[in-house]
Amino acid sequence: MNAENLKKLVKFPMPYGKYKGRIIADLPGNYLNWFAREGFPSGELGQLLALMQELDHNGLKHLLDPLRK
Predict the structure, then answer these.
(1) Which of 24, 26, 51, 68 lies at a C-alpha separation of 20 to 30 Å from 36?
(2) For 28-43, how does the pLDDT look when each residue is reduced to its tens digit (9 = 90+)?
(3) Is 65 a domain residue?
(4) Is 50 inside a domain boundary?
(5) Confidence of residue 69 (pLDDT cuts 50, 70, 90)
(6) CA of 37: how far to CAs of 6, 16, 21, 66, in Å?
């Protein structure tokens, strides 16, 4: 985990699927958990989704609040 990836979570939109256009930090936990079960996509998107799933699963989404400003 690095600071740049945390910043990307609040700026990077989901490029496809049911939540296309929604910022990764705003994706629902059940959607992130589905990726965790089925497999994250490769590349940067997969890394960001995995990071967001970890934050959500551990109740740490609030840590992103200061980055939203």
Answers:
(1) 68
(2) 999 999 999 999 999 9
(3) no
(4) yes
(5) confident
(6) 22, 18, 22, 30
61, 64, 66, 3: which is closest to 32 by C-alpha?
Answer: 61
Structure tokens, 47: 């890394």
C-alpha 31: how far from its chain's center? Answer: 10
Q: What is the residue type of 32?
A: L
**What pTM value is reported for the model?**
0.93
Residue 13 belongs to domain spanning: 3-60
Asked if 32 and 52 count as a contact pair (C-beta separation under 8 A), the reply is yes
